[in-house]
Design a protein that fits this description.
Helix content: 25-40%
Number of helices: 6
Number of strands: 10
Largest sheet: 7 strands, mixed
Mean pLDDT: 96
Order of helices and strands: EHEHHEEEEHEEEEHH
Distance between the termini: 29 Å
CATH class: Alpha Beta
CATH topology: Chloramphenicol Acetyltransferase
CATH superfamily: Chloramphenicol acetyltransferase-like domain
Structural class: alpha+beta
CATH architecture: 2-Layer Sandwich
Low-confidence stretches: none
């Protein structure tokens, strides 16, 4: 983690304009074509969520603005941010699951599966220091056109990515992906780049999911 020098920061005026707003976040939803990715999942029979979360984590880590956090009013940037998941439990409640990002999919898959199994046995609802993370939550029961999440001022600069239910449209399988970000740190152009990266990764699953 390094502190960003605001004197050299191109977005300083925007950072100062939005960081103390009562509602400083914005959220968007866009459809992503997962047709090649879904075919890969069916062929490999390795489940949907963990491979897809790897592509999301890879896309997030490619964008410096999604790795920036406001800590004590100051702006910092992480070299890598780690994903945290929500995991459905048998009693229909859910647990948090703090995981790690790996550039290697095999290492990511092994770690993520182990962490998910761990919190299913011993649920984690802690709210400790999480600036180094971003969050992924799933709503696989329905598709959506918009989604927002509770706002926490301390951790408001942490992006939240939401996965909805995919559906067929013509010859494509489309999935709604929501993302909620802090406008002091992230602009629409950066969210657009996130969707571009994720879409590209989903089109080439055999390249990234080895």
């Amino acid at each position: 983690m390094r502190k960003v020098d605001l004197d050299l920061y191109q977005r300083r005026a925007l950072f100062e304009a939005f960081k103390d707003r009562d509602v400083p976040y914005f959220s968007t939803t866009s459809l992503v074509d997962i047709t090649p990715f879904h075919a890969w999942v069916k062929e490999q029979q390795c489940g949907f969520f963990v491979p897809f979360s790897f592509l999301i984590s890879t896309a997030v880590n490619r964008i410096s603005e999604l790795r920036q956090r406001i800590v004590g009013g100051e702006l910092y940037e992480f070299d890598i941010v780690d994903p945290g998941y929500t995991v459905l439990l048998e009693d229909n409640t859910f647990s948090f699951c703090d995981a790690r990002h790996f550039n290697d999919f095999g290492a990511y898959l092994e770690h993520a599966n182990a962490k998910i199994a761990e919190v299913k046995q011993c649920p984690d609802r802690s709210v400790g220091e999480k600036y180094h993370m971003f969050f992924i939550t799933s709503l696989p029961w329905f598709s959506f056109t918009s989604v927002t999440h509770p706002y926490d001022r301390q951790y408001g600069s942490i992006p939240i990515v939401t996965i909805g239910k995919y559906f067929a449209q013509g010859n494509q399988l489309l999935i709604p992906i929501g993302i909620q970000v802090h406008h002091a740190v992230v602009d629409g152009i950066h969210v657009g780049r996130f969707y571009q990266h994720l879409s590209s990764l989903c089109q080439e699953p055999t390249t990234w999911l080895k």
